Amino acid sequence: MVSYKDIQASNSLINDATAPRVAVFVGGTSGIGKLTIQALVATGASTRIYLVGRKGSEERTRTFIQELHTISAKAEVIWIEGEIALLAETKRICDVIKKTESRIDLLFLTAGYAPFGARKETVEGVEIAQSLEYYSRVLFILHLLPLLREAEAPRVVSVLGGGLEWASINVDDPGLKKPGSFNGMRAQVQYIAMNTVTLEQLANDNPDVTFIHSWPGWVNTGNVRRGSDPNSIMSWVVWLVLDPLIRLFSLSDDESAQRHLFQSTSAAFGGRGVSWNGKPGINSLEKQANGLFLVNYKCDCTPNAKTLSSLRKGAQEKIWNHTQEVLQQYL
Q: What is the DSSP string of 18-84?
């Protein structure tokens, strides 16, 4: 475990020279994304942040942006509205950013929720949670990779379940569309593993970019309630059991924010970033080198070697080919 004291010490070194000059936060209107933005702005460093969210969150997010301006006048926060569950909208948002910026230092992806209810698809025929937690995230990365490559220490952080992969995923039906394939548990197992194998593929193809798949542990973001149908048995389970457990065992908002800011900036992962004198992180290939890092809520690297070895042999190529087929028309 990386101690909270060491996390805070590292983050205190963030300044104009070490902070991400341009950062894109997708899903930063609430939860971990919002908390991490606030922590980044509180460093007082010069940074420009693109905050992407849906129309329904715009009013409260603009209030949040005003609050950020009172914390630091050196942070510029730009709101971009869009429904990122739609891949066409994701492409449009990326096009807006690409017209304005020549580099991106940090891409931070947190959108999503646990789909406890029945399968629900977007108008593009994609299960909503899978689009938010996987397809849209990969599409953001693919569109913005040219700008990431222009940064000195580019980083992609995808917050979901790094290190929690299972080997038994459905490679013949990656979208879980066939009858009987979809339920909340299977969906989360599927989406976590798909994130990891694809991020590793992208890390292998882009050795100058650091990729992190983060498992945040329990943080009281409220997202656990979003995926269950109102008045369903699962919604009562969430209200009576999961919500109280999360409140009891979750990290504080401040600690979660600081730990994710550390993951976004520290040279502990890949050797580039804010100076780090502690033990270097181990990537998903179990090497002290740049690549994909599976990082838990203690900021420990958890390569999950046996499972990832199995996924590389039986799933990685199939998932990558499937993903390219789905996203091709939006690139």
A: TS-SEEEEETTTSHHHHHHHHHHHHTT--EEEEEEE-GGGHHHHHHHHHHHHHH-TTEEEEEEE--T
- Angle, alpha carbons 125-126-130 (nearest 5°): 175
Query: What is the reported pTM?
Result: 0.91
Of all residues in the chain, the percent with pLDDT exceeding 70 is: 90
CA-closest candidate to residue 96, choices 50, 128, 130, 135? 50
Length of the chain: 331
Query: What's the CATH code of the domain at 36?
Result: 3.40.50.720
24-54 pLDDT per residue, tens: 999 989 899 999 999 999 999 999 999 999 9
Between the CA of residue 301 and those of 23, 162, 168, 215, 279, what are the distances in Å? Answer: 23, 9, 22, 10, 11
**Number of structural domains in the chain:** 1
Helices within 116-224 (DSSP H only): 128-130, 136-148, 184-205
Q: Which domain holds residue 178?
A: 4-330
